[in-house]
Amino acid sequence: MSFQNNVYYNISAFGPEAMVASEALLKSYPLTKICLEILGKKLPAQLELGFFESGNQIIKQGETGKDLFLLCNHVADVIVFDRVIVKMEAPALFGDKALIDKSATRNATISIAEGDISLIIKIPVGKFIRESKQEEILDAEFKQETQIYYNLFLEIQNRLFKYAEIQKNLWTEVSSQLKMLNIQLITNIFNKQEERNWDAKAWQIIIKYLLSVHKFPWPKNIPFSIKTFVDILRTIQDRTFPRKSYKGSDQNYAYHKQMIWKKWLGKVSELVIQVLPNDQLPIGIGEVELFNPRIYQIRMHGLLTAIEKKFMFKKVPPKEGFFQPDRLKAKIYFGKDVHENEFNLDAYLKALKEMFNIKNPNRVLAQVAQQTAQLSATCENEFNASVSKMQHFLEKVRKLSIADSFAESDRQKKSNDIDIKIATIKEGLKAYNKRVLGMSHSFGGVIRFSETKIPIITDVIKSCGTDLLKKNVEKAFRSTLKSFGLKIEGFSDQLLAEQYYICQGDPSDVVPTSQLMTHYWIPISGCVMLKKGNQEFVILRPGTLIGGGTWEAGYGTVEEETKEREETWTLRIVKPEKDTGPDKTSLILIFPRKKLPWCFNSDPLPDDLYNKYIPIIQLLIEKYLENIMQFSQLRDALSKKYSNIIQVVIIEKKVREFESNQNMLSEKQYEKILDLVFNILGSNLEKREVMSSEKLSKQIYNHILKQTKRDFPNLNIEEQGNKAYTLWRFVQSEIITHVFADEARNKAKVEPPQPALEMVKENMEILLRKNFGEAYNLGYKLSDKGAYISLKEILNIKPGMLANESLALALSILDILESCSHNIVEEGSSFQERLKQVSSIETEFDVNEIQSKFILESIAKLRNIIQVKMAKKA
Length: 874
Fold this sequence. Notes:
54% helix; four-stranded antiparallel beta sheet; five-stranded antiparallel beta sheet; flat; alpha+beta
């Protein structure tokens, strides 16, 4: 017998040791343990297992089935309506809801995630659960169904409220991004010049912005239109920031102009969304609905009342002397504080048994336990659907929100031109690889520089089989350097070709930290990812220069290059998003630091200094200025997002305090809240005497619920409740933001990072003041209106400087740029890590740490037994 992946086999086929190990696993979970105690050896004899590869669906939404499954290793995706709700980490038991669902229809798809192969154990508990209507079965035997259903209920209820945190975290993300994304989408409307029927308030804001910020009055007799506004703003920018006033490179000028434009449109968009009604915003709060946890308690109360009225009192008489009506009140079986929505089914079943003369108590209690479990499962399904809606919402927002969309068409056109040139260079590399036996791209997945293995473009051209290909490769390479600002002033094409080495990287190839800090690396095709440890930071824009001595911070020795550590930076080739055919390699230029002229001679002749040294340093300075502007945008975006999420977390805490605070509001606070509620809802609350925020919160909810029922009469009561609950949460967060703004803001305040160019300027001033005294501010400009550094102008401040002194100064300036660029990346990574910590979703499905360790050890033992057996069979 040979064993294959993606197929189930009875565990007995792997021998008695596998049976014993699998039985130990069943004892690790309360649900399977109770099933094992009830069913005995019949259950382990029916167990099946299999090894399943990535993408295999263990269960599928909408299908029927009454099996439990144990995920023994790796990760599975929990998918609802084609959206991954959560990643389930092993060890995890799933599929339990099908045991209590009458139709046994699966409510989610469980699919093996990318990566490792997963061991799955199938537990056919459903085979052993009997229907209560089977009269030939004695009542005493139905005790097993009661126990099974009770434990199922506990599993589902615990999961529902444990993972309610997922919904809260997603809601935090939705809330934190809503304003920011609407700003981006309004900015996108301006960039695309899409006309909108905005009311007078929006245009008053735009007119006021032009006048107060740019001193430009709206022209008389010119109708309001988005195109006219954008044309006016373009005219203002061209007048105040012309190319001739900017001494930096064309690329730096383009980046700077782009940053100014984004800042202007972002500001006016932020002002506009404050006055636009909700139905005119690109993304409105009404598109997302939360699952109201109160519904669970309301439903449970309704279920118990129905059971008592339609069955217990009608068919079963109460016991004299034991019947206590107050014990039937549902509210006494719910917890308090954080457990207020959790139902104590065990206590309720005991009360029924004690107070009523039940003829077949086990059969009846099994039915009650089954129905409560079904209710919990229904609520969990709706909770999953709520999470799915929010994830759909976030995905929709990400698709709509296009950063730098105003430059997208030009960038796409440029990208298409570059793709053609890159394809030509790759053709040349194919010829070179063929000639040198394919040694040009990597060494066992690790890319590192080697003069004998990595070619310069001249070597590639020589390998081309035809004159036409040689000319095309040479032309494509020259044009690529120009496109990315990599031409060195004063260098001939031949001398330029000798400076850059070129290599290919396949998906998953890595440039380790030791290589990153030893040389300069410049991706010229996409799909090169900058990573810190295992955390992805950013896909580098083609033409970005990365590397240098500053990247060795926290690393260690060069010999540790293959050792991945959390504090180390690497480059990794990733798969292209679009299909690029069979050739998915990426191209990277290498500028070896050890071949730079000052590494050979730190005391050059003046002619060599100005003809060979300074042009290369000037190029590196300009590339690092580009980096600083590019990475600072990412860093600042991460910083802002982190600040927004922290603010929302604080606001959420303040909302909970608002709901439960019994202290009286002040008259001023009360009036502000009434005005704010009117602005949001468009209707007045019934005005009463000043009250506590707790009472006001309840009044607002009841008002919203009443309004929701009126506006959405076709929805059922629970749908109306969810919709009202969502809007209520939003209104309360707005109350905290606007009425208690100072208190919330002070607690949520996150200091923004230092502006990037300011960081560079401070270091430049210290260095140049030391060398030139009062003339320290000549030869460079670092501000919102320009960013350039001219080495020739700086060195001309003091013409009598020796060549080695001039070189040392130029290299010190380069060190400042390298260090600032690296610091900005480190700061961005720090905000990314903090974001991960504050917005991560808890997805552990193990019972507790100790139990998890025991389970994993049992799984490892079982896997070893199976693998030995499979090896023998092979």
